[in-house]
Amino acid sequence: MQSITLPAEWGLQDGVMLTFPHVNTDWKPILNEVKSCFVSIAKEIILKEKLVVICVSIDEVRDALGDIDYSKIIFCELPSNDSWVRDHGPLSIFIGNKPCILDFNFNGWGLKFPANYDNQITHHLYASKIFAPAVGYKKIDIVLEGGSIESDGNGTLLTTARCLLSLNRNESMTQFDLENVFKKIFGVKRVLWLNNGYLFGDDTDAHIDTLVRFCSRKTIAFVQCTNKNDEHFEELSLMEKELSTFQTLEGNPYQLVPLPMAEAIYYQGKRLPATYANFLIINDAVLIPTYDSYLDEIAQMSLQKAFLDKKIIGINCLPLIKQRGSLHCVTMQIPKGFLL
């Protein structure tokens, strides 16, 4: 039987995907503002690798991007409900040495939002021939969002029970069932489950990429709340205790890198799930969300400890957080060997 690997995000990449916002999405009231954020992300990515842009109008995106290196951009015109490609985009694995994309069901985070177009995007991307001829395709008939899992590329998967065991996703499946599926599909040896941790205003039921991230096989970055008056203090303290009990496959404690709990941000009277854990690892750099806060610099310096060989680059994500997501949520990396 051939081995299966779910690559870690810090592995070499061919590119990153973006699903560009448009007028027929919830972004409509702040469309120009959020487009500027997407342009900032795109410009940083093409300095390091290719960019796949899923959009309803190539001309509209070109107008937004302006004068940049279009030789690094692959356009795919497709309808979309929203811009969270982390959750509706493909997950990439290697079966032996053969690259393969997995197309899971996406149902709008447990039927919270329409997803009829987004759920078809991965299939249409594969049919559009943007991937190398050797890349395979598998449709997986369970609900899974990319933001709900973290891989160390070495057989360990990290996730949250609050998300994966929630209603309207795969409620007929137990934790044991899901672990067996992940071992079969991703080739992982074990799954580490977090039972604590959440962010107020989060629609995803505590995606792992808003709370805790693998930075290497031995290092985990996590959101730490030190303010006892913050509503997150108890849950995030319990989460930190859980993390302190986790061990690497070699039986050693993980090196834990705390990231500050973001300052409270409100929009239309509601607190938003701002987080510094929603960073994106690309070739030779890490893009971290910032929020016009004094904590931005502290978060970047903390993350630098986990990525000594990469440049930490801040991207203002205040527009993204208004729709309760951030930088990692609107991006999906494509490992080396997948794109033409």
Automatic annotation (TrEMBL):
Pfam families named in the record: PAD_porph (PF04371)
Alphabetic keyword roster: Hydrolase
Superkingdom field: Bacteria
InterPro entries referenced in this protein's UniProt entry, alphabetically: Peptidyl-Arg-deiminase_porph (IPR007466)
Gene Ontology molecular function: agmatine deiminase activity; protein-arginine deiminase activity
GO biological process: putrescine biosynthetic process
The UniProt record lists the keyword Amino-acid biosynthesis: no
Protein name: Agmatine deiminase
Upper classification of the organism: Bacteria, Pseudomonadati, Bacteroidota, Bacteroidia, Bacteroidales
